[in-house]
Amino acid sequence: MIPVDHTLVNAYFTDNEKSIVCTEWQSNTEDEAFRTYTFNVDENNRWWRALLKHHIDIEQIHENTYNRIRNMRQTYENELKEIAIANNEWDDIFGNRQADHDLLIKYINTGDGEKDVFNLKLKLFEQEHVFKSNNRELKSELRKAKTIADVLKAYLKF
């Protein structure tokens, strides 16, 4: 829905297929209410067409989605840090290179979607110490990992 007398504050995709968009609106009236509407991305959907025609372009929606995910990830990482500190485990995890890596993995959200695992592997193979490593067994172990936890376990052996 495109509300009347409102200003678009944000619009972003809510799924990997980019088939659903969430829009956030601020009322231009005295109540300054904040409203959120979610709808399907479809050329036959009048709200989608109106959003693109009058309020925002598709590139900005993609950028907003990327920024939202990045901000959510940063918030998530900060919360993990706070939990580790609150449990007096920060030094155990990050205090030295001989850290208890199983403890670190305990704090990782293992969504384990194939795409997430693949993207994580790509990022890790780009790390200089992995890229330049001649240890074919470790690289193979990292390549064959099926879950985020397994990817991290393999990576931490480098």
Describe the sheet with the most strands: 3 strands, antiparallel
Number of DSSP strand runs: 3
For the largest beta sheet, what order do the strands appear in spatially?
1-2-3
What is the overall number of helices? 8
The structural class is: alpha+beta
Considering DSSP H and I runs of 4 or more, what fraction of the residues is helical?
A: 40-55%
Structural summary, described in words:
The protein has 158 residues and is an alpha+beta fold. The chain has 3 domains: 6-56, no CATH class; 63-107; 110-158. Helix content is 52%, strand content 15%. The chain contains 8 helices and 3 strands. The protein has helices spanning 46-54, 58-86, 90-94, 101-106, 114-125, 128-131, 136-144, 148-155; strands at 6-13, 20-27, 34-40. It has a 3-stranded antiparallel β-sheet with strand order 1-2-3. Helix 7 packs antiparallel against helix 8. The longest helix is centred in the middle third of the chain and has 29 residues, at 58-86. It is elongated and about 60 Å long. Mean pLDDT is 83; it is low at 96-100.
